[in-house]
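batch job 7 of whatever, protein = Immunoglobulin V-set domain-containing protein
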Amino acid sequence: MEVSTGKVSHLFALNGSTVLLPCTYASCIGIKNLYFNWHYNNNGSMIKLCEAVIPVEGIEPRVSVYHERVEFVGTSKGNNISILLWNITFEDDGEYILKDVDTTLTTIIVSVVGGVIGLSILGMVIKALVINFLLKDDEKNKECLVSSGNDNTENGHSGAKADNKGTPKA
């Protein structure tokens, strides 16, 4: 996702006037739960001015404003997350920062990685089942070979070799 203030990097305003802090965003893969917030850097102390979440593209954000002279004027239909500062004073001089967190790309990456891990686990399970099946089949073959030896039931001993002695002479 790309966030832009256009060509505006410094603003100058008259005391008592209203100033637009412009900002637009663009995303080539769409957005879902885009969180953003505006802060004012007051000599190293960050003061949150407003924050919002845009649930999906085209749906207006749920905005919370924390400063009485700040107004959110953006619209998700125009990919605009700009704010107005009303009745500017000398104390408003400083750096204004927009932070955004778009979880769409993170969600896509996690989904792909999760899918790959899932396929790997499935492959290992299939391999284990095939090996287990082959080992059991091999054991059955060994059992068949053992039990198919010469059997001498004539003398009452199973598995004993028959002696080929001639018939007894009387």
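notes: The chain has one helix and nine strands.
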